Amino acid sequence: MPTRTLIPLAATLVALSSLPAQAVTPQLTPTPTACTPDEQVVFQCDIGARRVAVCASRGLGPQGGQLQYRYGRPAAVELAYPSADTPWRNVTRGGTLMFSGGGGAWLAFTRGEHRYVVYTAVGQGWGDKAGVVVERGGRRLAVLACTRPPVSDIGPDLFQRAGVPTLEEGFELP
User: Fold this and answer.
1) Which residues sit opposite 157 in a β-bridge?
2) Disulfide check for 146: which of 18, 45, 142, 165 has CB 3.0–4.6 Å away?
C-alpha cells in the first residue's frame, strides 16, 4: 500500500479513537424479544438460544392497554402477536391450574389455527414447570421448557387487573 494511502487511513483511525465509543459504534436497535423499559414483563423465560416473553403496555387495565406474546432470539423477534391494531382480548385467554399440593396459571394467544400457551406451575413430587406449548388445530406441535427460572406475573390477579378473558378448562399441563 502506498504511503499516501496509509497516512489518511492512520489519521482517520487516530481521529476515530478519540471519539466516545457511542459515536463510533453504529446504533442498531433491533426489536428486543424481552419487554422494553416502557413495558411490564408479564412472563419471560429463556428456551435455549431463544426467549419467550409476554409484555404489557403502560395503562394495561380492563378497558385499555395491550398484551403481546414475543418469541425469538434476544437480538431479533421471530414472532410478535397480536399486532397493535388487533384487539388482544379477542385472541387471548387465561386460566388457572389446580393440583393436589400445587397449582399454576397459563396465558394463551390464538392466531388462526395456532395457539401459543405460556405457563407456570408447581406440584408436589415434580416441582416447578414453566415454558410454552405450541398447538395447531388442537394438537401439540411443540413443548418448550424454560431453561432458566422464569419471570411470571400470570395468574388471577393479572387476569382481573387487565381484563383477561378466562377459561376454567382449556389447557393441560405438559
Assistant:
1) none
2) 45
pLDDT of 173 reads: 87
Helix, strand, coil abundance in the chain, percent, nearest 5: 15, 45, 40
Rounded Cα distance between 147 and 3, Å, is: 55
In the predicted model, what is the mean pLDDT of residues 59-84?
Answer: 91
CA 162 from chain centre, in angstroms, equals 17
Helix, strand, or coil (residue 63): coil
The answer to whether residues 46 and 146 touch, using CB atoms and an 8 Å cutoff, is yes
- Smallest CA-to-CA distance from 33 within 16, 48, 15 is with 48
Quick: pLDDT tens for 79-131. 999 998 899 999 999 999 988 889 999 999 999 999 999 999 999 888 899 99
Cα distances (angstroms) measured from residue 140 to each of 75, 118, 143: 27, 13, 7
Nearest partner of 63 among 153, 161, 155, judged by Cα: 161
Per residue in 7-18, pLDDT (tens digit) is 333 333 333 333
